[in-house]
Design brief:
- With 408 residues, this protein is α+β, with helices and mostly antiparallel strands.
- Helices cover 34% and strands 27% of the residues.
- It contains eleven helices and 17 strands.
- It has a five-stranded mixed beta sheet. A five-stranded mixed beta sheet has the order 11-10-9-12-13.
């Protein structure tokens, strides 16, 4: 048995509901939830195969447009500007939603206040069973084959024009009006219907040659009887996911916490890895710059640019040539200088000069403070090196100093 759950939001966050046997067209159960009640009775949803949400037409603007859009995204972007002049509210406060493109190229377009849509969504989403369709109640009131339907809802008069009628379609095509205003607007509504049949609730007391009487108080049954293709063409104010029977949010909900923890760990690992990469890249750049600086001072007459690896190889070859068969004093001094400044992040080596006769390395460096040399001197004692202070002065980049490194 195919059953429809019909939901109708009411005043003060109440929700009227009913269960309709779609094939028999009979109401099986009904009730009303107060604002404090967040769920339907436990046994209500047992045989429900879809949900129809009847939205009050007085809070909606309904149009039907031919949008020359190549994609659904373009249609969503164009629709607000096509009906902007018809809206009573500001465009930035209104949610405009076009439905799927139908065979004749037309689309139903529904507009409602952003705050109103969000209030409906938060109240109704926990009650909905997929697939679900949002139906303006004036759509449900529309009598098949009638050029105009006037339906007494009790608290308002619903009207709906036939979208396939001859001539230019009136705007809006469907809606609701206060019963007190009915007498002043009935004439233009009837004139818009032309010579077509007008279906009118008996309680309104209207008669005429082309008038046909219909009942009232059966909006849930009328909604359940709407053709499936009409429902499929309606705009989806609450999002596309409602028309699917698969509730992804329900599947993901139990995994939300572990997924959030995994994402946090992944982000943390990524930041750590990124930080290490930046640190080692900076260190590599520092060593390459120092190598090139040493090469430029050792070989000022070299006629072309070199990369750090080539400069290191040329320096090694030069040092081996100077040292002959003995161990290279130059390379020992370079290694000693590297060990000396390894932990001195406030000391920057600017240039070095090797004296093969004295077996010393003259170093030009920039300090952040005069005390930096004292720290280097203390570390030199621990490494078995001798430092000779060549003096220091304040420069534009810091304290510019000279010192000599000698092996003990």
């Amino acid at each position: 048995m195919s059953q429809d759950l019909i939901l109708k939001p009411g005043p003060q966050d109440s929700v009227a509901w009913s269960i309709v046997d779609r094939e028999a067209g009979q109401r099986l159960r009904d009730g009303r939830l107060s604002a404090e009640e967040a769920a339907l009775p436990a046994d209500v949803a047992a045989g429900v195969t879809r949900t129809l949400v009847l939205l009050p037409s007085e809070a909606l603007h309904v149009s039907r447009l031919a949008l020359s859009a190549r994609s659904e995204q373009q249609a969503r972007q164009a629709a607000p500007y096509m009906i902007e002049d018809e809206l009573a509210s500001r465009l930035d406060e209104t949610q405009v939603c076009p439905g799927p493109r139908e065979a004749d190229g037309q689309r139903w377009v529904v507009a409602a206040g952003v705050d109103q849509v969000e209030a409906w969504r938060s109240r109704l989403m926990p009650l909905i069973q997929r697939p679900a369709f949002l139906v303006p109640d004036s759509f449900a009131a529309a009598e098949p084959g009638a050029a105009l339907t006037l339906y007494d809802r009790g608290d308002a008069i619903l009207f709906a024009h036939d979208p396939d009628g001859a001539g230019e379609a009136p705007k809006p095509l469907a809606g609701a009006m206060d019963a007190a205003l009915f007498g002043s607007v009935i004439q233009p509504l009837v004139e818009a219907a032309g010579t077509g049949e007008i279906a009118v609730s008996r309680s309104l007391g209207l008669t005429g040659a082309n008038f046909r009487s219909i009942g009232q108080g059966e909006l849930d049954l009328r909604a359940s009887a709407l053709p499936a293709e009409r429902l499929a063409g309606l705009p989806r104010l609450f999002g596309e996911s409602l028309v699917s029977t698969l509730d992804l949010s329900a599947l993901i909900r139990p995994l939300r916490r572990p997924l959030a923890m995994a994402a946090a760990l992944l982000v943390g690992f990524g930041l750590l890895l990124g930080g290490e990469t930046v640190y080692y890249r900076l260190q590599a750049d520092r060593f390459e710059a120092a190598t090139l600086a040493v090469f430029r001072h050792a070989r000022p007459d070299f006629g072309r640019p070199v990369i750090a690896a080539e400069a290191e190889r040329l320096l090694r070859d030069q040092a081996n040539a100077l040292a002959g068969d003995d161990e290279s004093v130059f390379l020992q001094l370079l290694a000693a200088l590297d060990a000396l400044t390894e932990e001195a992040e406030t000391v920057r080596v600017d240039h070095v000069r090797f004296d093969p006769v004295r077996g010393t390395l003259s170093v030009g460096a920039t300090y952040s403070d005069f005390s930096d040399f004292d720290q280097l001197n203390d570390r030199a004692d621990a490494l078995g090196l001798q430092l000779e202070d060549g003096g220091a002065r304040e420069g534009t980049a810091g304290i510019e100093g000279e010192f000599v490194v000698r092996l003990s």
